[in-house]
Amino acid sequence: MIVTGPFTSGRQAPGLPRLPTPPSGWPIGSYSTYEEAQRAVDYLADSEFRVADVTIVGVDLMLVERVIGKLSWGRVLGTGALSGAWFGLFVGLLLGLFSSTQGMSYAPVLVGLVAGVVFGAAFAAMSYGSTRGRRDFSSASQLVAGRYDVLCQPRNAEKGRDLLAKLAMGSHG
């Protein structure tokens, strides 16, 4: 389990299992989007409910790949050169800062920038060329669920279910 957020990495929470384990608890709510489930847990927290007993579980997981656009040699080389330029600029700045000359030297920055552009474009070209046209598009992948269940440990499940029923009926008091 993660301390920081739903899909981010962070430090291990104390008392949580280190190995993947199935969730436990009784269902107290079910939602069609993660945002709705998150809002429900936030409502429980605002109602002074013990949210340490609560788990959000994504059910019926799907990997959704959204196509962003068509790839071309120009786009591949341009993107590779740009990402290489950023890395080369970073390395060049570091070398410039720690060079033995008086003050900041711009030669290492320029060399790092040019080398970054060249190597970035070359690596992008090799990567794209190795696909031999089998993947001429760019995309972004996302893991989503068909529904999101909110589970609660049995000792507080009834109270949690009552609070979420109030939220569903619109009476937040």
Automatic annotation (TrEMBL):
InterPro entries: GSP17M-like_dom. The chain crosses the membrane at residues 76-98, 104-125. Pfam families: YflT. The lineage of its organism: Bacteria, Bacillati, Actinomycetota, Actinomycetes, Pseudonocardiales. This is DUF4199 domain-containing protein. The keyword Hydrolase does not apply. The keyword Nucleotide-binding does not apply. Residues 1-11 have a biased composition (Polar residues).
